[in-house]
Every structure is written in C-alpha cells, then in structure tokens.
Design brief:
Elements (H helix, E strand, L loop, with lengths): L1 E4 L28 E5 L2 E2 L3 E3 L5 H18 L5 E3 L6 E6 L10 H6 L12 E6 L2 E6 L2 H14 L3 E2 L7 E2 L6 E9 L5 E6 L14 H8 L14 H7 L1 H6 L4 E4 L2 E7 L4 H17 L5 E3 L12 H5 L3 H19 L4 E8 L13 E10 L5 H11 L3 E6 L3 H4 L11 H13 L4 E6 L3 H16 L5 H13 L3 H10 L10 H17 L4 H23 L5 H17 L8 H16 L21 H14 L14 E3 L12 E8 L2 E7 L5 E7 L11 E7 L4 E7 L5 E6 L5 E8 L5 E6 L4 E4 L6 E3 L2 E8 L5 E7 L3 E4 L5 E5 L6 E6 L7 E8 L3 E4 L5 E2 L7 E3 H6 L13 E2 L16 E2 L1
Parallel strand pairs: 1-11, 4-5, 4-6, 6-8, 12-19, 15-16, 16-17, 17-18, 18-19
Antiparallel strand pairs: 2-3, 2-11, 7-8, 7-11, 9-10, 13-14, 20-39, 21-28, 21-30, 22-27, 22-29, 23-26, 23-28, 24-25, 24-27, 29-38, 31-36, 32-35, 32-37, 33-34, 33-36, 40-41
Helix pairs in contact: 1-3, 7-9, 12-13, 13-14, 14-15, 15-16, 16-17, 16-20, 17-18, 17-20, 18-19
C-alpha cells in the first residue's frame, strides 16, 4: 500500500527553536515502507513519551490492541522517544527534533490560536512509523488514521459495528498531513447517555468519538446560561429583585433586566470567576435562559429589539474578559427572540452559533445564514439532527439520517467560515447511523466524497450483503422522501432477510444485521401502536415496546434515555401505570436480559409476516401542466375558493389563459403565536424560473390580495414561504391554481372541504398512499365511493374505478392534506374542478378541452348549471 496525501497550509511555523531539524524522508529512491508485523509476529514496538498523559496512553494501548487483533501479534507499548525504531506516537513538543522535518513542522502549525491543535502528520520509513500531532488530540487522530488505512472502522458505538480485518502482514508506505476544516465538531445526545460513564473517556460514545476523530480544537460554550447565573447568585438577586426582568408589572423569572448596569457588573463578575476557576476553558456563555420572558421595563424597551439587549450584555462582558484574559471568548446562540444580529458591531471575542430552528424576528433562517457571517468574526452553527419528540425514533428519522442534508449543509457552513458545528442528536443509530457517519466525515473535511463514504460503509459493514444493504438504506433514506407504508416496510424487512441469507457465513455481519432487526422490531411495535384502537391492547403494546428497547439498549439502535425520561412518563400517565414513570425500579422490564439470537429471529419472522409488499400500479406523468375545462360553461370569477390552511411554504402552479394577470388572496399569520417571525415571502416565476414578481407580507392574520402582471399566457409558479406562521390561499374558482403533491407531504391544519383530482381514462383502480386522518372519496356523480378510517393511515388505498367513471374528476372530502401520494393518478389537486391542471399528455390522450387562448369577456349569472357532490352548491357562469 502506498498512499501519499499532502494537505498544504500557507501559514509558516517559526522553527528557530527546532534546531538540528532532519528530514524524516529517506534519500530519493529509497523505500519508505514500514513493516509493522509479519507472519503473526510484531516487528515494531509502540513508543510513547515518558510524560505521556492519560489520553495518549489510552490511544497507545488501543493501537496495540487493534494491530494485534489484525495480525495475531502482540505489540509492546514502550516509553521513551529517544530511539529511531518503532511506531512513535506523541506531540511536536515531545518528539525528538531530528525526526521532525521542516515540512512536518509547517503542517503542524497552529494558526489563530486554535486552527491546528488537532493537526497531525504520518510518515513511514523502514523500521519507523511517525504518528505526530501538534497536541494530544492530533497524535490520537494520527493513530486512528493509521488503523483506518489498514481497514479498521468503528461505524457505530456498539462493539458489533467495529470492523477489524485479518492481516497477518502489516506493511504500509504512507505520508499524510491533515487537520480538521471545522475546529469543533459535536454530535451529542439530547436527553443524555445511558449512564454517566458512556460520555466519558472509556465510555462507548466517548470511544466512538475518539476513534472517529470527532473532537474540538476549541471548547464551545454557547448554551443557555442566564438561569444558571441567577442560581449562582440567588442570595444577591433575592436582595436585588431589580436585577430580574419586569414582566406584567413584577420582577422575577429567569431573564435579566439588561439595561441595569449592575446586571452587567454581575455577569462580568461571573465570567471572570469562571475563567479563574477554569483556566483551560476557551469560552464562557452569556446566552439567555430558554424561552421568552424578556424585560418590559422602559429602559430595556429603549434599547430596541431583544437582540440588542442580549448582545449588549455579551459585548460588555466580552470587553472585560478580553482585558483580563486575552484570547478568551464569550459565547451565545443566535436563537429564538435573539436570532437576528444586533444593530451594532460585536466585540471581536464574541462567539455566535446560529441555530437552524426556533427562529424569531424579521429574518428567515436563510437570510440569517447570509447576515451573521458578515456580522460576527467567530461563527458556528447549531443543528437539530434528532429530537425524539419530533420523530420518535421512527423511519425515516430526522436530519441526522439525511445524507443529502449533510452533503449540502456542511460545505455551506464551511464556506461561511464556521469553526464549529453542534448537532443535537439521539443515541438512535437504527434510523440515523449511516447519516451520523457521513456527518462525522464531512465535519472533518467538507470536500470529502460522500458516495465513497457510504460505499465504504456498505462494503466493510456488510461484506457479501453490501448491495442489498445499500438498497435498504436508500429505500428508507430521508433525502429520498420515502413513503413509510406497510408496503415499504415489507420491502425493508425483505432487504434485511435477503442480506441475512447472503451473509450466512459471516458472523460479524450477522451480528450487525441482528441490531437492525432489533430496530425494525421497534418500528413494528410503534407502527401497531399508531393504529391500535383498543386501550388494553395499546397498553400491552407499550409495555412490549419499553421492554424491547430496555433489553436492547446497549445496541444503541434506539435512544433509550429519551424513551425512559420522556415517553415512559407520558405513557405512564395515559395508561395509569405509575411504576412506568421514568422506568422506575418496579417497572416490569427492569432487569430483563438482552434478546437472544433465537428471540431476534422469531420477532423478525413476525415482522416479515406482518408487513407484506403489495402489487402497486405505478405510472409516471410529466410536469407539463395545462388547464382543462372540466365543467362546461362553469366559472366562478367573483368567489375566491380557499385551498387549505397550511403551515410551511411550498409551490403552487398557476396559468394565465390569455395573458391576464394572476390573482391570489393569501391570509398570513394564521398562528398568532408565530407572528413575530420573518415576514412571509412570495415569488412568481415563469417556466424558465425567471422571477416575474416577488414581495413580502406582514404576518398579521389579514387577507392580502396579490396581483401579478405576466408578460404572456402560459404556466407560472407561485412560491410562498410563511415562516411557519400558517397561511391560507384562495383564488377565483375558474383561475387555474393547482397544488403539486409531494412525497414529503404538507403540514395542513383542519379539514379542506374539497380537493379535486383527475382519474385518466382506462384506469381500473385508483391507488394512493396517505398518512393522516379519516376522509372520504367522492366520485364524479357526487356519491360516496370510499370512506377511509384513521387506522388505515400509513397504507396504500386501492379503489376500483366503476365503468364510465374514468376520464373524470373525483375529489377528497373533509381531508387534512398531510401526506397524499398517488401511484397511478397525476399528483395534482385543486380547490375547484376548473382550477385543476393536468399533464398535457393526459389531456391530449383523453381528448379534453385545453383552455389555452380562452378570454372571459363578460360576467352573467345563469343560475344553477352544475352542482357539486353535496347537491347544494349553486355556481355562476362567465360567458
């Protein structure tokens, strides 16, 4: 193996103190291959400095163990770097100068106090391997990089997910200079670890981080802190209630009255004391306690928006910190009511992490993403990879498992000069493991090849079943917007079954597949719970689920701590089982052993039987939409028809028949609590994605009429972003305005009275997936075709098409339009028949009248020309 990877860095290191530097490379043309073991015998010892600390000694012992497991040899760990023979592990300060070349010293240069603390170099020569770090972390990274080059992997924290190849001969020719692009990288567990030791040195998660080079050159401290400071000085604050926020005429709560100079003095005292007690800390937090409740006093109000107050305190504290402790920083989030930048410049030693959620104020996240790096010289980003309350550990999971999200976002963070990424996550490697691996690699090198990372995972973790497991992971991947149905889960179970057959002679692969079977059992139980109507049966399923996750908690497939602390508490109250609360010592699952292989095989067989793939008619249609006159003579130009109450932005499609303006009425800010977010944004674009009109609307709960003059007749797109504050849209009944369905679904509140869709000619069945509440399907004759119940959520519904009812308009009635996806019908809905557009090829094949060139000239009420399925709606006509 010969691998030469040079990562050059422009800044130079002053090397006057490194007298007598000698090149570590041998003369040109001479081999630089090192042989570590041959025929099961170790040829080189591992050598560490006499003064090696605990971290370096842990790494050396780990290195010896894994080299030994690969080769069958016993590697000795020795102290004293005085010689020239061995696998030499240490820091630049500890290494003999004769072994450190100028290029190695340059590669280990620490720039701007932090960039380079984790830098490392690897050099090989006959009878020597140099594993050299700028500091301890760098030396550690070099050791595990060497093991990676030999094929070792630690994909997930459980020991079953480590890959240790069998290599009786260990030889390598390697020259590597490397350092992380993101200086502080963290994937941490919301709700915490299974026990105190798991996150500490020697614990499974800490060990996974060490072996995967996930560490920090700078210690980030931006978390909510005001409530902690209040508790530290509780006696003083009790004597001075004026230090706390004024709310509804009273002082109290967990926010400060920032306009009070004494508060600035108090927080400065806290920060200086913090660094005195924690001299190795890089940062002290000045972030407000979570939630609202900021001060309403006259002086605070005079300071302007909440961001001005919060960052004023941070600035004043930062100045004092810089004076006494130069180089130390004050950290806080850009989050919630202080999401947006203040109106003034930030002190040079203020550090800000922009959060990707809980944004308030006049700017959207994307706008803040552009603004903050221009405002702050010390910048990081805070992500939400997994929040149990949001995804419940179910497929497809959160952004933690979203490889497409990591592929896009992490390079964007790096481009914005981020020095940290904090990812709030879960100890749930069942749905998120592959994504956590990709995120880990990209945080180190945002230019890493994602496809190579995932291919390496499939091949090394699953060997002969690699192709099948790639299919499994891509089938359920969030970036592919999977439709999590009984059908898809049936296919997923069969992927794992096929992989088991292919790997029958590989116990290591079978152990990993058993873990995924354990996770799919959780999915199976959770799926049944979501559809169970009987309370007694539901209680039994909850007990099975808690028992299952508890017994298998050390596989880390599910986030047991979140389930223990949150879900058991909620469920205990719901089913009146107080012993379940927080999984107390009397809970029925406590003390039960992990599942045996026989038990795993048995419940996996149950899942195979329960989830069965269906024969599904799948048809593809183009997005070349045209307006069609489905109801002859029908128009309703003066009566706007609502098209649902949505939360979250998406695209609608409109059509100008003869060049007339596009008109739509939007009600913004339907959710009053979120009206302090960024104004709603709308954009009209043509088929070439050229912007025709764009604007902003206040989130005021009012109706806003939007009129867009278009250059010509044709298809246009209406994009609306409501900042999550809720919105409705309405257009005249004859105005073509169509909602393209999407696999990821919508957040739709309440019921939409009617959503129309077209059933092409020749279809014998209508098949669609839905995940939501009960609803009705009404045929073209206005009669009920099918009533769909809640318990059918998450399934594909197939409805026979009676003779003569193909080539007609059908509709959903009283439906919450969350996730609907047709497999054989064009995926477009509208609030009225003539507002619906369909693919051009369908209109032409079915002989439908396309409304191109139509121009209304007069409005005449002709009475009842058409009734909808309720038989009561009177429609007017334009002729």
């Amino acid at each position: 193996m010969k691998i030469t990877l040079w990562h050059r860095w422009s800044a130079a290191l002053t090397v006057a103190t490194l007298t007598g530097l000698a090149t570590a490379a041998t003369a040109q043309g001479q081999s630089t291959e090192a042989v570590l073991a041959h025929d099961g015998r170790a040829l080189l010892p591992i050598v560490i400095p006499e003064d090696a600390g605990e971290r370096l000694r842990t790494v050396a012992n780990d290195l010896a163990a894994y080299l030994g497991r690969m080769s069958g040899a016993t590697f000795e760990v020795k102290t004293g770097l005085g010689g020239d023979v061995g696998i030499m592990l240490g820091t630049l300060e500890q290494f003999p100068s004769r072994l450190v070349s100028r290029d190695m010293a340059d590669a280990l240069a620490i720039r701007n106090r932090f960039d380079g603390k984790e830098a490392y170099v690897i050099r090989t020569a006959p009878r020597r391997v140099v594993l050299l770090g700028a500091e301890d972390w760098g030396a550690s990274h070099a050791a595990y990089r060497l093991l990676e080059e030999f094929g070792c992997r630690w994909f997930f924290p459980a020991r079953e997910w480590e890959v240790i190849p069998d290599r009786r001969d260990l030889r390598i020719d390697l020259a590597v200079d490397d350092r992380p692009a993101i200086l502080a990288r963290r994937i941490w567990y919301q709700w915490g670890y299974l026990d105190r030791e798991q996150g500490r040195c020697g614990g499974e998660h800490a060990t996974w981080r060490r072996r995967n080079r996930m560490a920090s050159s700078i210690s980030i401290n931006c978390g909510h802190a005001w409530d902690h400071v209040i508790s530290v000085y509780k006696d003083l604050i009790k004597a001075h209630p004026e230090y706390l926020a004024l709310r509804d005429g009273e002082r109290g709560g967990n926010k400060f009255c920032v306009s009070n100079p004494a508060v600035i003095d108090l927080y400065t005292r806290y920060a200086l004391d913090y660094f005195a007690k924690n001299p190795d800390a890089d940062m002290v937090s000045a972030d407000p306690s979570d939630g609202g409740g900021h001060c309403e006093c006259e002086n605070c109000a005079a300071m302007g928006k909440v961001s001005n107050r919060v960052f004023h305190l941070a600035n004043e504290v930062a100045k004092a910190v810089d004076e006494k402790y130069p180089g130390k920083m004050v950290g806080l989030y850009a989050y919630n009511l202080h999401s947006e930048p203040p109106d003034f410049e930030l002190a040079p030693n203020v550090y800000v992490q922009l959060t990707s959620g809980f944004i308030r104020g006049q700017y959207s996240y994307d706008e803040l993403f552009e603004l903050w790096p221009k405002k702050c010289r010390n910048m990081g980003f805070y992500e939400y990879y997994s929040v149990y309350q949001w995804n419940g550990d179910m497929l497809p999971g959160g952004n933690g498992g979203n490889v497409g999200h990591h592929r896009r976002r992490i390079p964007e963070f790096h481009h914005a000069n981020a020095t940290s990424i904090d990812a709030e996550s879960g100890n749930n490697w069942g749905p998120h493991g592959r994504g956590y691996i990709v995120a880990n690699r990209l945080m180190w090198n945002p230019k890493a090849d994602v496809d190579s990372i995932t291919e390496d995972f499939y091949m090394k973790a699953f060997g002969p079943a690699a192709d099948v497991m790639q299919r499994y992971y891509e089938r359920v991947a969030p970036e592919n917007s999977p439709i999590i149905s009984n059908h898809l889960l049936g296919l997923a179970f069969r992927d794992i079954h096929e992989a088991t057959e292919l790997a029958k002679d590989r116990p290591d692969v079978l152990a990993r597949l058993d873990h995924l079977k354990i996770y799919l059992r959780y999915v199976h139980l959770k799926w049944m719970l979501g559809r169970e109507q009987d309370k007694a049966r539901s209680k039994d399923l909850w007990e099975q689920l808690f028992t299952h996750v508890y017994r298998n908690r050390y596989t880390y497939m599910n986030h047991w701590e979140a389930i223990r602390q949150f879900q058991t508490r909620v469920t205990a109250k719901a089913v009146d089982e107080p012993t379940w609360h927080h999984s107390g010592p009397e809970a029925p699952w406590i003390g039960k052993a992990p599942n045996t292989r026989q038990e795993i095989a048995a419940f996996f067989a149950e899942g195979l039987e329960y989830f069965k793939p269906q024969e599904i008619d799948e048809r593809a249609y183009s997005d070349d939409l045209v307006p069609v006159r489905f109801v002859k003579g029908h128009a309703r130009p003066n009566a706007p028809t609502p098209a649902g109450f949505f939360q979250g932005g998406f695209r609608s499609v409109m059509y100008s028949i003869a060049g007339e303006p596009l008109e739509v009425t939007v009600t913004t800010g339907r959710i009053a609590w979120y009206r302090d977010r960024a104004q709603a944004k709308y954009t009209f674009t043509d088929e070439q994605q050229e912007v025709i009109l764009e604007g902003r609307l206040p989130l005021d709960g009012q109706k806003h009429a939007i009129r867009c003059q278009v250059p010509t007749a044709g298809l246009y797109f209406f994009d609306f972003n409501d900042s999550g504050a809720g919105w409705t849209k309405a257009a005249a009944g004859d105005q073509p305005l169509t909602i393209p369905l999407r696999k990821s679904g919508f957040t739709h509140h309440g019921w939409g009275k009617n959503y129309y869709f077209y059933v092409p000619k020749g279809l014998k069945n209508v098949t669609y997936y839905f995940d939501g509440g009960a609803h009705k399907i009404i045929g073209p004759d206005g009669k009920l075709v099918r009533e769909v119940e809640n318990h059918q959520s998450g399934t594909y519904i197939t409805i026979p098409v009676p003779d003569g009812m193909d080539g007609t308009i059908w509709r959903f009635k009283q439906i919450a339009l969350s996730k609907i996806w047709f497999t054989n019908v064009p995926n477009y809905l509208a609030g009225t028949p003539n507002a619906l557009m369909i693919p051009r090829e369908v209109a032409e094949a079915d002989g439908l009248e396309v409304r191109e060139g139509y121009q209304p000239v007069a409005k005449v009420s002709l009475g009842v020309l058409w009734r909808d399925g309720d038989g009561a709606t009177v429609l007017a006509v334009t002729v």
